[in-house]
Amino acid sequence: TNYAITRFTKNMLFDEKMGGTIHMALGNAYPESGGLNKSAIHWDILKDMKKGGEIYADGKLFYKNGKFLI
């Protein structure tokens, strides 16, 4: 991730690398990256987590306000 990127550009390939965001892709994998799943879609989802965002795993907080805690 790159925390020097401070605003969205509406270009997913650039924006998904913005520091403080999370990126998730659903659907068809890119075969050149080793993915094997097949789907009619590939949907990229991007979420800005810098202001109040929290992610928990097994009840433990590990990502808060766009930064990893571990």
Describe this protein with a few key phrases.
mainly beta, 6% helix, 3-stranded antiparallel sheet, two-stranded antiparallel ribbon, 5 strands, 70 residues
Q: Could you say which overall geometry the principal axes of the C-alpha atoms support?
A: globular
Work out the helicity level: under 10%
Strand order of the largest sheet: 3-4-5
Low-pLDDT residue spans: none
Overall tally of domains:
1
Query: Structural class of the secondary structure composition?
Result: mainly beta
In DSSP terms (H or I, runs of 4 or more residues), the helix count works out at: 1
Order of helices and strands: HEEEEE
Number-wise, the strands total 5
Summarize model confidence as the mean pLDDT.
92
Largest sheet: 3 strands, antiparallel
The fraction of residues in strands falls at 35-45%
Query: Cα distance, first to last residue?
Result: 16 Å
